[in-house]
Structure formats: C-alpha cells, structure tokens
Amino acid sequence: MKPFAPARRTLLAAFALTPLLLAGTTRRGVAAINDTGNAATSAKGAPSYRIDIHNFAFAPKELTVPAGARIVWTNLDDEPHTIVSAAGAFKPSQALDTNDSFATVLDKPGTYAYFCGIHPMMVGKIVVR
Fold first, then answer.
1. In this structure, is residue 11 part of a structural domain?
2. Residue 23 CA to chain centroid, in angstroms?
C-alpha cells in the first residue's frame, strides 16, 4: 500500500490550499495561467507559460518563450513527477504530487532540455529567444 493514496493526497492538498485561497492568492505564488497554455502575467509582470504533466508526458513537449518568461509545470497525473534541467540550468523541483506546481524563470536565450527525474523517459524542451 502506498503511503499517500490519491484520495488522501487530494484531501491533504485541499487542506494545504485553504489558507492560500482565503488570503486571495494562488498556490505557491504561481500566477494564473489560462487553459490554452498561453502566457499570463505573473505578479512581477513577466509572462508565464504553462506546461502540464499528463499521462506521463509534458504538454506541450516543446515550448518557445521570450527571455525572462516564467515557466510553470503542473502535475495532473496520479503519480509524482520531478522537473530536472538536463544541463543544470535551474534547480530541480521537489516531487510534485497531483495538482502540485513548480515554476522557474528563464532569463537567458538558449535551448533548455529537461526531464522527469523519476521517469527519465519523460522529456521536454524550452527554447528561450
């Protein structure tokens, strides 16, 4: 038996979100991002882009963004995932449980390959212009 079954994780997540929802902020300070994955504006005015983790894949698998963009990954799977930069360009995430998010800002132009540290066959790429 897993220590945190999906139903229990959902309940724990709901309790963890309660103070943030009451304060009128989003979870972990992540900016609101629209459902199409297009840019929204973060609290600091930088554009934010969303990458969903679903069915053991990143969607979109490749994303092109401007320098200074904030990238937000959200785990929609029932299994935990991590976000790891292949070249160490950003600090790796903690294990993301269902509906958890991780964000980083990419300031320098280039191509950033990343993967799930738990499931290395899950790969993605961000191109910063």
1. no
2. 22
For the chain, what is the mean pLDDT?
78
In 3D space, the residue among 38, 62, 40, 60 whose CA is nearest the CA of residue 51 turns out to be 60
Q: How many domains does the chain have?
A: 1
Placement of tokens 């973060």 in the chain: 42
Residue 21 in any domain: the answer is no
Residue 2 lies in a domain: no
Q: How far apart are CA 86 and CA 76, in angstroms?
A: 22
Residues 34-61 pLDDT 10s: 333 444 555 556 789 999 999 999 999 9
| Residue 108 included in any domain | yes
pLDDT at 23 > cutoff 50: no
What are the C-alpha distances in Å from 91 to residues 38, 87, 104? 24, 10, 8
